[in-house]
Amino acid sequence: MREVAIIGIGQTPVGEHWDKGLRELALEALEAALRDAGVERVDALLVGNMLSGQIEAQEHLGALVADFAGMHGVEAMKVEAACASGAAALRLGYAMVAGGLADRVAVVGVEKMTDASGEQITAALATAADAEYEAVHGLTFTALNALLMRRYMHEHGYRREDFAPFSINAHRNAVHNPYAMLRFPITAEAFASARMIADPITLLDASPVCDGAAAVILCPAEEARAFQERPVRIRASAVATDTVALHDRRDPLWLEAVALSAHRAFQQAGVGPEDIDFFELHDAFTIMAALSLEACGFAPRGRGVALALEGAIFREGQLPIATMGGLKARGHPVGATGLYQIVEAVLQLRGQAGPNQIPHARLGMTQNIGGTGATVITHILEAMD
Amino acid sequence: MHPARAWRGRRQRYVLEGEICEGCGARLFPPRDICPECQRPARTPYPLSGRGEVYSYTVVYEPPVGYEDQVPYVVALVKLEEGPLVSAMLTDALPEEVYIGMPVEMVTRVLHRQGERGVIAYGYKFRPVLRAAVPQAAQPIPATA
Amino acid sequence: MLENGHRIMQPARPVGIVGYGAYVPRYRLPGAEISRLWTGGAEPPPIREKAVPGPDEDVVTMSIEAARNALARAGIPPNRLRAVWVGSESHPYAVKPSGTIVAEAIGATPFVQAGDWEFACKAGTEAMQAAVGLVGSGMADYAMAIGMDTAQGRPGDALEYTAGAGGAAFLIGPAAESLAILEGSLSYVTDTPDFWRRAHARYPEHGGRFTGEPAYFHHITEAARRLMEALGTRPEDYAYAVFHQPNVKFPQKVAAMLGFRPEQIRTGLLVDEIGNTYAGSCLIGLTAILDEAQPGDRILAVSFGSGAGSDAFSFVVAEAIQERRGRAPRTRDYIARRVVIDYATYARYRRKIVMDTEG
Questions:
Q1: Do A123-207+232-383 and A4-117+210-226 have the same topology in CATH?
Q2: Does B118 contact C359 at a Cβ distance shorter than 8 Å?
């Protein structure tokens, strides 16, 4: 098993790209990443995406993007794991390089969500849930998270307003990220009075519908310095699954796949939660952020929200999260998000995060969650000196 | 929904037919065929009583395709008295009437109509218990009908 | 069989009602709301309020609950039913019987009859006659007959005040197991076009005052008189009587014409509180009676269906009713469960608003 490094990153701004389709977005991110790495040819291309079939009537993205990017004949496949598709694609790219099957792998996550009505997107996102026993009952992805949030509030005595720091922090950081979609700060008052989508989740608890693509180039760590002055090593790559349906979980408020995935990642890297300098977690909803912190061991059970209220999650705190805006404010083009998290972590570890820079960032953690916690993919990245 | 798919799930949807694990006796719903408790086969059909309480709930204001005519609707996680948790809509209850711990019972309602021409999907929802002494569940349906 | 061609029907073996169950949805539209909308409140409503089905209810779902209540009172395994017959004028499908879905949902499939019945407001009692025949002939031990409706009233029409939703299920079986035993029944049918709906029309038409004397009153009085004559019973022999109830006045008048006192029809007269439940109308009055009747009480039930005809039944309540009637919600439990809605909500729930969404 070889060590793997990230030698190039690229991303499109997250937003409503009326003038760009899937292939154009993917190419834009890939070209930027290839240019950043100084690489022209790759051995393989992995495309992370969730909704292309439902929204664009387009599957077969591996071949489609490879061809559009001029990578004729190259090995290419689409990888899908609901909202964790991006990290899933990275995971497989990592495995190819680590296993010696390829020396240069491009991984791109791309998603196009704006070619659909609200009801269509809601129905499409619900395919991450259990079709026969959740979606058929009108449960939406937002509703599932709302069920978690309400139960969590009931068991631990929080109010809806207590979740505000997650969104306030994300927005604050997005202001300084030119690729983020919602680059404006929000206040606690705005959070408290935001429009209800699925009680108690409001517009300001939830990530926006958007388009985007992000890409990385991987190579064996021992070759990295030939391409990149500041390469980043992948210290851990770990996947765990849990029941798709929330009602099948042993304990819905304990994200077991998060715990397993994080634990495996910590073991692979030989580190613990206290060693992590920043955490790009899956804040599709504020409740998901809170539960992720707890299951990873950053906060005791029931104390994820308390950690946020104490300020620990802000850039100045002891565990900064969503340092470039997170899913909430940078945006959540679902199949691409996992790669945005990686790209942002690399920027931090290279010292290129601008006003959002976490001082002395050496070890960063990213976590991408599919569904309500059915697939969890954790990576730990390290700056290579 | 294609009629074959609606038809395939009818026993689960009409009767809350789950499974009982041959190994450890756990009642399972939805049916999973492999018991999550002891990993042994669990293929014996078992209709659950439909009695339970609300574990959590929410009100949906932004529906998926096909559910627009029901907005706003309440969905819940219901803890059945046999143990499993099930996802379903709540019916016959205004959002403000619902609370965690509310006793509920299963009823069979329209889940989904496809316009004026498609097949109608019927299935389980839960409502606040109609009266203190609820009717006894119909006798267990024999496995080979 | 008696002279003059009077045909009372009595089964080859004694049968009765082994289980019964009602269902009424919880929403109520006050007559005053309808009057407000269409007449500015000038017209006094003929009934206080009517039951309205929720958006996720239809004749199938309502029949399932009534049938489950009937099974609970009967205490028999559902796979011993040989028929599940739903009579209605608002079946959700024109082709695909409501009975098939109800039978599946209650566990009566696959060895069962399940075709639908239609005869306006007497579709349920037609099904009951057939169930009596199926069991009474010895072909089956148990059969379920259901009368249930969510009939629509044309907005602004007089019938909109009364077109309500609800009904009841009756599980017919051997007399020895019955809560009420059948003494005999009689049907009286003619071709009388008092009220009808063409195949693709949305709302029914009616003949105004023609629906009274030649239709409702003629058929009910003929069926009731001939049945009582054949049985040798008189109005004073009955503890209760229930007639089809399209409004409050008609059943009160026909009761008086036949010689019944107001007290005899009071328990079964529900129309002022839930409206005319069409195929369920007479039958749900019967369940309300069974909820309180005592062993030995005699009950007369006479339906009326436009088109037109009446089914008359005479029952005697049995001892078993004491122990079994408490096993399911009573008719009054459903009537007491009410949430008042306004006309806009009613129009939405009844899908009277043109949404023009894709099918």
A1: yes
A2: yes
Which chain B residues have a beta carbon less than 8 Å from that of A132?
Answer: 9, 12, 30
Query: What's the pTM?
Result: 0.93
Cβ–Cβ < 8 Å for A321, A344: no
For residue B134, tell me if it sits in a domain. Answer: no
What's the CATH number for A4-117+210-226?
3.40.47.10
Q: Domain range holding B19?
A: 3-128
SS3 A8: strand
Quick check: A244 contacting B, CB < 8 Å?
no
Total number of domains in chain B: 1
**Domain limits of chain A?**
4-117+210-226, 123-207+232-383
Residue to mutate among A127, A132, A134, A139, with most B CBs inside 10 A, is: A139
Q: Nearest CA to CA, how far is C75 from chain B (Å)?
A: 8
Give me the pLDDT at residue C6, please: 60
Contacts 24+ apart (CB under 8 A), A28-33: A28/A213, A29/A108, A29/A110, A29/A213, A29/A214, A29/A215, A29/A339, A30/A65, A30/A69, A30/A106, A30/A108, A30/A213, A30/A215, A31/A69, A32/A215, A33/A8, A33/A9, A33/A106, A33/A108, A33/A215, A33/A216, A33/A217
Hey, what are C244's tokens?
A: 């089809």
Nearest to C57 among B15, B110, B139 (CB): B110
CB contact under 8 A, B139 and C77: yes
Nearest-CA distance B135 → chain A (Å): 25
Check if C244 is active-site. Answer: yes
The answer to whether domain A123-207+232-383 has CATH 3.30.70.260 is no
Residue C143 CB partners (closer than 8 Å, separation 6+): C81, C82, C83, C84, C85, C113, C130, C131, C134, C135, C171, C172, C173
Residue with token string 């756990």: B26
Structure confidence by residue, pLDDT tens digits, C162-171:
999 999 999 9
In terms of Cα–Cα distance, which of C311, C323, C314, C313 is closest to C87? C311
- Residue B135 within a domain: no
Asked if C65's CB is within 8 angstroms of B107's CB, the reply is yes
Q: Is C326 on the interface with B (CB under 8 A)?
A: yes
The CA radius of gyration of chain B, in Å to the nearest whole number, is 16
Coil, helix or strand at residue B86: strand
With an 8 Å Cβ cutoff, is B84 touching chain A?
A: yes
Query: Nearest C-alpha of chain A: how many angstroms from B65?
Result: 5
B52 in reach of chain A (CB within 8 A): no
pLDDT digits (tens, 9 = 90+) for C189-199: 999 999 999 99
**C-alpha–C-alpha distance, residues A84 and A96, integer Å:** 18
CA distance B42 to chain A (A): 15
Closest chain A CA to residue B121? A136
Q: Which of C20, C56, C325 to mutate to test the interface with B (most CBs of B within 10 A)?
A: C56
**Is the Cβ of A128 closer than 8 Å to some Cβ of chain B?**
no
Judged by a CB distance cut-off of 8 A, whether residue A200 touches chain B is yes
Classify A108 as helix, strand or coil.
strand
Measured between CB atoms, which of C68, C92, C357 is closest to B120? C92
Instruction: Provide the CATH number for the domain around residue B49.
Output: 2.40.50.840
Place of tokens 């509310």: B102
Bin C17: left if φ > 0, else alpha if -120 < ψ < 50, else beta. Answer: beta
Q: Write down all domains in chain C, each with its CATH number in brackets.
A: 16-179+323-349 (3.40.47.10), 183-321 (3.40.47.10)
- Check: CB of residue A333 under 8 Å from CB of residue A14: yes
Q: Would you give per-residue pLDDT tens digits along chain B (145 residues)?
A: 788 988 999 999 999 999 999 889 899 999 888 998 898 988 899 999 999 999 999 999 999 998 988 899 999 999 999 999 999 999 999 999 999 999 999 999 999 888 889 999 999 999 999 975 444 444 443 333 3
